[in-house]
Amino acid sequence: MRQTRACLRRVVAQHSRHKYLKMKELRKSVCAANRDLERLGLVTLTWGNVSGYDPERKLIVIKPSGVPYASLTPEQMVIVDLDGKVVEGELRPSSDTPTHATLYRNFSGLRGIVHTHSPKATAFCQAARALPCFGTTHADHFHGTVPLARALTPQEVEEDYEGHTGNVIVERFRGLDPLAMPAVLVAHHAPFTWGPSPRKALENAVALEAVAAMALDALRLDPALGPMPAHISEKHYQRKHGPGATYGQAREPQAS
Questions:
Q1: Distance, CA of 156 to CA of 150 (rounded, Å)
Q2: What are the chain's domains?
Q3: Rounded distance between C-alpha atoms, residue 127 and residue 205, angstroms
Q4: In 13, 26, 221, 249, which residue has its Cα 20 to 30 A from 170's Cα atom?
């Protein structure tokens, strides 16, 4: 009996240590992605944040509010639950935490979210305009038009601005696959991107800003420009993301 109890204690201790190490790594990953927002030119001042999600513990790691990116450390990252309540951390979490929490609750498969006010993508938000697929660069990364979430009503702003920002994104994605379209433009606000990790969500934010810049240039050349032919855009998306994708290197078969 004593041996059984001792064995159980060891198993519990090992499991607790595994969860601790996993959360420590997530904090490092989220911190690094937040610091890279500034390096990649996606933010001005402190206008942006990155979070990561641990589905096993149902906990979110997110940037502390208003802290300059260059001074961020993994220990400063704030851990909150899916209701946005602080579980661990001495600093206040990002003011956008309720939006992040809403997306994690509603979109399965998300492990990282990025919110920026990057200039070109935000220009589409301020114009309350979706971002059509004008060329193959866009099609390689996003499956069709990057959708626009509607503006919040006065009541929604008064009730819970950040929470309802998440709600209008979820509302817009009814019938859409958030993993195939890992970005959204919120009317009069700014973009959000996401992915299977904080790093991938950051890559999607970089791609969104790049294709938004190309789109603005294309619209200057031809203000009446329409989306590219669907058969070309579909080819480009599927060759990179589809079941028979040919982009990149084949994965090594795992040893049995």
A1: 12
A2: 25-241 (3.40.225.10)
A3: 19
A4: 26
